[in-house]
Amino acid sequence: MVQPQEPEFEQAYNELLSTIQDSTLFEKKPEYKKVIDVVSIPERVVQFRVVWENDKGELEVNRGYRVQFNSALGPYKGGLRFHPTVNLSILKFLGYEQIFKNALTGLNIGGGKGGADFNPKGRSDNEIRRFCYAFMSELSRHIGQFTDVPAGDIGVGGREVGFLFGAYKKIKNSWEGVLTGKGLTWGGSLIRPEATGYGLVYYVEKMIEHATQGKESFKGKKVAISGSGNVAQYAALKVIELGGTVVSLSDSKGSIIAPNGITTQQISAIAEAKLKFKSLEEITGSYSAFSDSPVKYIPGARPWVHVGDIDVALPSATQNEISGEEAKALVAAGCKYVAEGSNMGSTLEAIDVFEGERASSSGTAVWYAPGKAANCGGVAVSGLEMGQNSQRVQWTEEEVDQKLKEIMINCFDNCLNTAIAYSSETNKDSLPSLVKGANIAGFVKVADAMYAQGDVF
Which family does it belong to (predicted)? Predict the structure, then answer.
């Protein structure tokens, strides 16, 4: 199923397949084996050129993509990423993960992903608007509220979603919920910016509750977080609200370490500065919120080997941001819970470290949750936004937050119970494998729909 030169997709494919094979699913239900071959090939891949004009009046051209991976459960759903590293392998890996992540939300949404190798950094608003209109002039042929509903991702925030939505509306002469992450005054949902970070913390809250039989919570926990975008910011704010201490954040140039904790005021300063594409080095060196703070900036480093003793690690930046060696360092630092706010945040080597420690212990070692489960809160609220658009209503912040929390609790319970049901492990004292539970639960739901619709026979 994996083509040459697709290392990211190969990793996602192997991670899913290996965890399913290391369970009793195919033994109990051998008919599911044939689904792997079908579900691992996208239903459709759209690739196109994007020709646009910069502020100097010069022609520029980029590659645009939309991977429509699986629609068994509903319209294709997944973000658009504008970043120079975007290629087909990365989008296939993200789309593949999205199939099973979306299944875990319990909502009727399929899996897809798209974007372009365009870098919005350093571009004017006019350049970004012209690029978005050129990009949508082709993408609009392939999406729609009942077909494919993209959202934002890296490089595609509220500004870009606004331009893309405006372009679609003009091209199609139709106001419809074709994109999620819209502005609150024109179809957006409350809690959408916060959803992935909040949902991540709600999921880990259940992990802590289950592992300690309700005796512990986030209160008093030291939490290392990577990234400094929306996911990391709102995860950090929710951890602080629940009584935890956030000891790190990071960006592509380095990390900040704060043994005594990063404050809500500092997170607000980071959020404001990141809108202007400021680095953490610039922020910590010039913003007043950091002037009298013992926060330490470490250039060119991820936080994991620098945070000291911690209880929780939340990788929330990008794929493969915890290596095997860094995983060992987290275990040595006493980390008990690792949950991915980013997609495929841990390498296979890191997952092997976490899972090896978990499987060989009596319940006190590290417990790992994959991104397809732990960070599904973002797409869940995107799905709730689609529902609000269809009804032409807007729910309150409390309503959306409550629905998000219920989705994350149900997702955790589903992963936990599925892991127990299909476990092939001999150590009955260890905690169940949430990565196996997530992969199997998502896969089975999609496979059943594919059988019912005749996609597999």
Answer: Belongs to the Glu/Leu/Phe/Val dehydrogenases family.
pLDDT in tens, 313-337: 999 998 899 999 999 999 999 999 9
**Can you give the pLDDT at residue 283?**
94
User: What confidence score (pLDDT) does residue 144 get?
Assistant: 97
Residue 382 annotated as binding?
yes
378 labeled part of a ligand binding site: no
Question: What's the mean pLDDT in 400-408?
Answer: 98
Beta strands in 273-358 (DSSP E): 296-299, 312-314, 337-339
Q: Quick one: average pLDDT of 118-145?
A: 97
In a domain, 306, yes or no: yes
Same-domain status, 155 and 219: no
Cα 175 from chain centre: 28
Is residue 330 one of the residues assigned to a domain? yes
Rounded CA-CA distance 82/114 in Å is 9
Catalytic position from the list 113, 222, 238, 436: 113
Are 312 and 347 found together in one domain?
yes
101 is in an annotated binding site: yes
**Region 181-192: what's the mean pLDDT?**
96
- Asked if residue 230 belongs to a known ligand binding site, the reply is yes
Would you call 113 a catalytic residue per the annotation? yes
224 forms beta bridges with 248, 313
